[in-house]
Amino acid sequence: MTPRSAIYSPQLPAHPQRQRLSLRPSSLRGTSTTPAPPNPVEEDSLDGLNDDSLDADALNEVIMALDMKENGNLGCAYYIAADEALFLLEDVAAAGVEIVETLLVHAKPTTVLTPARTSQALLSLLAKGSDSEDGDDHDRTWPAAYILRTLKSTDFRYESARDKLLDLRTQQGDHAIVLVSVADELGDEHGREQGSMQGSLLRLGTFVNLESRLTIGCAGAVLGDIQRRRTAQYLPNDPDALVAFAIRSVEMFSLFDSMFVNADTLVSLQILQSEFHPNNQMRGPDKSNAGAKESLSVYGLFHFLACTPQGKSKLRKVFLRPSLDIDLITARQRTISFFIRPEHSDALATLTKDLRKIRNMRTSIAHLQKGVDTPGQRATVANNVWAAIQRFALHTLQIHETLAQMSGAEKIPIVRKVTESIYPATLRLVGEVISRTIDFEQSRERQRTAVKQGIDANLDEMKRSYEGMDNFLTEVNNRLRSDIPEWAQKYVQGCVFYPQLGFLTVVSLNSDTGKANYEGEGLNDVWDHMFTNDGVIYCKNRRMKEMDERFGDAYCMIIDREIEVLHELSVRLLEHEDAILAASDVLGELDSILALAIGSRKYNWVAPRMTTENVLHIQGGRHPLQELVVPSFVSNGCHLRAGDGAGVENPRSDGSSASQNSKDAPSTLVLTGPNHSGKSVYLKQVAVIVYLAHIGCFIPAERATIGLTDRILTRIATRESVVRQESAFAIDLRQAAFAINFATRRSLILIDEFGKGTDSADGAGLVTALLHHFTVLGSERPKLLAATHYHEIFEGNFLSESPHLSFAHMDVHIDFDASNAEDQLTYLFKLKPGRSVSSFGSRCAAMNGIDGAVVKRAEAIMLLLVRGEDLEAVCSKLSVTEEARLEEAESVARAFLEHDIEAPKPKGKQVDGTYRATLGKILVGGPSISDIPTTADNGW
Questions:
Q1: Nearest-10 crossing angle of helices 385-405, 361-370
Q2: In a domain, 261, yes or no
Q3: What pLDDT does 799 receive?
Q4: Is residue 297 part of a domain?
Q5: What's the confidence (pLDDT) of residue 217?
Q6: How, if at all, do strands 747-752 and 783-787 pair?
Q7: Exposure winner among 378, 580, 587, 845, fewest CB in 10 A?
Q8: What pLDDT score does 291 carry?
């Protein structure tokens, strides 16, 4: 703390503060003028600021309520604090826990609420928390840890929940309903007092489906939890409670307007995949920092291309919810095509440069409402709320001007939306009023928010008096020295001013006595010792007290007045809150589209043709991740046509060659080939291309015609974990069963190595039955890609021929004359029609270091299996050496039996020698049996 005195440096004391600026949002309308644009403030110092690090735990709260009946009916509602929005799901019949996984991945809740009477299957799933089911946090797609709370079943009652929704105070706006608080806290002047209960229900029914009884009950549980949090965190009548957990909008959403993808699909296709951050300082349990970063994934290809926090969030939502709206998909494709035109490259670079200077205004407005202008431990004056809003206004105006200068931009939907959502006059007013009020240069010097001169006359007068205090203190010190005895003048060093302590007299310290060298002797005054520091004592005497009463605490008075001015500024800015938030949200949407455009140009992707026909025609397709990690990638196509349904209208078709050629395409493609030949990559490649097409992005292919696909179901990755009471084979069966039960004719199903976790005969039978099931569905058959090594299902003709079934294999080059086993098999990674006669597992084993004798034996057994021979009989056959030894043993035995050996007469050692000689000749194949002497010849 630096004092003001004639001796010390005349600098205003640094006083870091978190000012209470505004507690209530004012009206949504304000005056609009057209002043000059604001001046930029320290833009470069704000570029790398991470908005999520600014003490944003409360803003990252996502409260979700789930309720599932025993019959599988599911209801869900969740509240996002950052958006101040309540989302309600249309009730889903016979949903299953897989849909719950999708909701958890989509919403990333921090708290999950369930009733005590809910389905046990749901409780078992939620009890696993945030741990990924495969037991590997590096590959998790589930959200960070959430708190699971089981509530009373009465908290989910439909009637009470409906009443809570009715009690929300609503204001009808031009675009949305603004829900601010609950009527038990504030009187509902716009709600039920203006009409009957029936009228209130009618108004509520205009934006909420009251027939979704389970979801309405979940909404009541969420509202109850919000009310509990307000009661626990705020005192009664605390004005901060008005803006805490506010609800500005209620929206219904459905799983039927987007492609269904569950956690298995996201993991198998690597759509999203997080891993621990390599910097352990970035790991932590707080909600704003989950300690993970995006790994090698499809979303990761675009994540770093988004410039704003709201843009990254919007981009993630786009990847999690592929659309089934063909108009929306084609609109995004046209937008991407527009921005990547060569003539727009400079404008695109300008847009991204301006977007990188923008932060999420929802966070800034929330801090402004709470009265905190410098949130977070790492926040400084250069990146506080005022600087963020001013910078937002400046760069938003520049973005608006850049878009206006792009030829043909008025035809692009997102550009029209940006133009309609941004009010230049309002943003100029916002930027100008901040620039006119805040002195950013002085704020950096003093490390606190400072107000410019000319804003408030009283404040200016107080600052002038404070700045002139050095001369005043010098004069006071001279007067004081004239009053005290001449011998004591050398001990009085001066007068100083400290905030909150006031005016003080500085006296030197007597090192022997530990007291001041002068304590007011000779004066009718009492010098009180306030404190000692650096060998001097600070005293309060009558003259200092008179100055305190006359001038007061000048510094604190300046601070108090600046807080009042900043409060008035915040109130004025909050009059334009809706305009600021609308501009921030639409810029986030623009940022997400630009990220898709930049990524499509960066990776050399093309726009697919979307159609309502149930076809899939890809030419020259590539895997977006695999091609980035290999020197060269071999492209492959795919041609499938699923069932058209019974009694449906003719789908839209432009009669293109791709559409005509796909009429004879199969609905099921069974893929065979050696290990490591690229079968799994091909399956994932096709699915990822379909996935990217449905988010409106370009795809890695030469050209493609893709029909709308409502679900992508996979049996690829087996996510094992010790917390799951299932074997690997049981998990595979569950995934296959889910595909059977939930597949429609517009679904794409991927099956890779199904049945490998059990007996080979049982596995082959299961694969055959599964393929047969999807092939014979007729007009309701889905698109199916399967890879298998069970060649016996083809050798035995277990799969009946069908025009909807086709076979293909990944081509390889075989050179058995090569001396090196590793050179005998060369992978070409090219898809060829027809099936492969072998998986070449033995060749793969040889290439991976398995002993040659083992490989040769394995090839012999595989050949016998293909011929259908009895392995037990063949494996019991003797080798040539064993046969020779058996023949020798047989000849010896016969020779022994043909020789008649009579009982010898006892003659001592002579008898023993005779036996030994006879047996020795037999065993070593000596003379014939006739040449062996008998017992009579030897005198036995």
A1: 150
A2: no
A3: 81
A4: no
A5: 94
A6: parallel
A7: 378
A8: 54
Query: What domain count does the chain have?
Result: 5
Residue 778 gets the label, from left (phi > 0), alpha (psi -120 to 50) or beta, of left
Are 382 and 46 within 8 A, CB to CB?
yes
780 and 860 belong to one structural domain: no
Res 870: pLDDT: 72
Q: Which amino acid, one-letter code, is at 93?
A: A
pLDDT at 640: 95
Backbone angles phi, psi at 897, to 5 degrees: -75, -30
Residue 856 amino acid letter: K
Considering 877, 904, 923, which residue would you say is the last residue of a domain? 877
For the record, the structure tokens of 205 come out as 């029914």
Structure tokens at 611: 């159609």
Upper half-sphere CA count for residue 733 (Cβ side, 13 Å) = 10
d(CA 76, CA 97): 13
Domain carrying residue 922: 881-931
Is the distance from CB of 495 to CB of 473 less than 8 angstroms? yes
Within its chain, how far is the Cα of 10 from the centroid?
52
Q: Is the pTM of this model over 0.90?
A: no
**Residue pLDDT, tens place only, 161-185:** 988 888 875 433 333 343 433 433 4
Pair of tokens at residue 123: 């409780």
pLDDT recorded at residue 579: 94
For residues 668 and 535, state if they share a domain: no
Count of beta carbons in the 10 Å neighbourhood of residue 239: 11
| Average pLDDT of the chain to the nearest whole number | 78
Task: Answer yes or no: are the C-beta atoms of 617 and 336 closer than 8 Å.
Answer: no
Determine if residue 696 is left, alpha or beta; phi over 0 gives left, psi from -120 to 50 gives alpha, anything else beta: left
Q: Which amino acid is at 89?
A: L
Spans in the chain with pLDDT lower than 50: 1-55, 130-143, 170-195, 285-289, 647-653, 926-940
Task: Give the tens place of pLDDT for each residue, 225-250.
Answer: 998 888 887 777 776 666 678 888 88
Compute the distance between CA of residue 311 and CA of residue 305 in angstroms, rounded to an integer: 10
Q: Using CA atoms, how far apart are residues 614 and 632, in angstroms rounded to an integer?
A: 32
What integer pLDDT is reported at residue 143 of this predicted model? 45
Question: Closest Cα to residue 112, out of 232, 252, 221, 274?
Answer: 221
For CA atoms 246, 251, 252, 253, the dihedral sign is negative
d(CA 468, CA 434): 28
Structure tokens at 473: 């203190």
Does 268 reside within a domain?
no
Measured at the alpha carbon of residue 418, what is the angle toward residues 90 and 433, in degrees to the nearest 5?
115
Q: Amino acid identity, residue 789? A: H
In a domain, 525, yes or no: yes
Are 380 and 374 a contacting pair, CB within 8 Å? yes
Q: Which amino acid is at 825?
A: L
Please answer whether residues 126 and 114 qualify as being in contact, where contact means their C-beta atoms are separated by less than 8 angstroms.
yes
